[in-house]
Amino acid sequence: MDFLTGFPLIMQQTKTLVRKNFILTMRNKRIALIQITIPFIFMGMLYGMRKSSTFLSNLPGLGNAVRDPKRITDFAIPPCEDKLLIRNPCYDFAWSGSGNPRIEGIVKRIMEANPGRPIPPDKVKSFRTKEELNEWLVKNPLTTPGALHFRQTKKLKLSYGVVTNTSSYLKIGQIVEDYAFMHQLPLQLAATREIARSLLKGNKLILFL
Asked: Which spans are transmembrane here (predicted)?
């Protein structure tokens, strides 16, 4: 009996494996049908995605690249008088960290760069330490919507915290004030923005587009 070797042996084994797989596949025609149709389904999906992408890119205002998008809204620090419950005289915000030139510069820029309304100095109250500010908040409820705690631990390391003055709470009918959106978020965004500017001041910023 002669044994095949080389390329004829490879062809014989290939034909045998193909025949074996075909027989096993035909025993479950549902799986065979799925295996045949899935590639065509994905090809159709890719074709549809490409056509929709081409269609959207041709629409005016949708497909054009926007390199300098316009600002939709400004999360400005609102006047303290806009708060639902407030006592006069009131402050737009208070802050701790007085005596640190860098922190004082950041707070000054927060006041000057407040979108749509620069904050006057008499509407901001400063404290030297966090403890002094917290004590004042407890003794003077409903006097300011919120406060910023600044702390510089290293030359380029500056941390901050946002605290809202919720020492007192009164319920008036069904009126609900979104405190986080109206008061806490504007303070957080303003502090983050000006801290980032202070870190980038005097340094070159390289953008990879």
From this structure: 31-49
Tens-digit pLDDT profile for residues 108-145? 999 998 988 899 999 999 999 999 999 998 888 888 98
Bridge partners, 172 (sequence order) = none
Query: pLDDT digits over 5-53, tens only?
Result: 777 778 888 888 888 887 877 778 787 788 888 889 999 999 998 888 8
Q: Within the chain, which residue ranges are assigned CATH 3.40.190?
A: 80-200
- Distance in angstroms (rounded) separating the CA atoms of residues 81 and 20: 83
Distances (CA, A) of 56 to 40, 59, 95, 127: 24, 5, 48, 54
Task: Specify whether the CB–CB gap between 75 and 186 falls below 8 A.
Answer: yes
Best CA proximity match to 198, nearest among 160, 162, 163: 160
Confidence at residue 31, expressed as pLDDT on a 0 to 100 scale: 79
State how far the alpha carbon of 89 is from the alpha carbons of 107, 128, 144, 147, in Å: 21, 21, 9, 16
| Pair 28, 36: CB distance under 8 Å | no
Residues 6+ apart with CB under 8 A from 109: 194, 197, 198
